Amino acid sequence: MNPQMKYGFLAIVVAQAMHSTEEYLTRLFEVFAPARFISSLLTDDLQVGFLIVNSAVVLIGVWCYLFRVRPGHKSAVGWMWFWIIFEGANGIGHVLLALSAGEYFPGLMTAPALIAASAYLAWKISDSGSVSQNIQPS
Asked: How many CA atoms lie within 13 A of 31 on its CB side?
């Protein structure tokens, strides 16, 4: 696995951390029903629930980087594709929500970072050849 792929994945995790921070500060959980619902599964305090859920997402990304992507684990490419799809869709979704609302929607400012990091990593994985070339024995 080449270093650009590892850095690309790390960029997705950093972009998600920035995105989660923006969503928290702009209180997405107050204006977006799915965020409100997920946050309410953990506690009646939506702000705390949202913080827990988003912290978990970022921590899972850090875990994937440290224990799958960085060491070149055989499952690394699968994890990277999962995050590419998840974060690419997340970024595009925020852009579409803002367009539909005709104004700023929480998460819009960092959505381009999610889209760009996802596109970059997809390009690097695709550019590197077959999946078997991307995996190093662990």
From this structure: 14
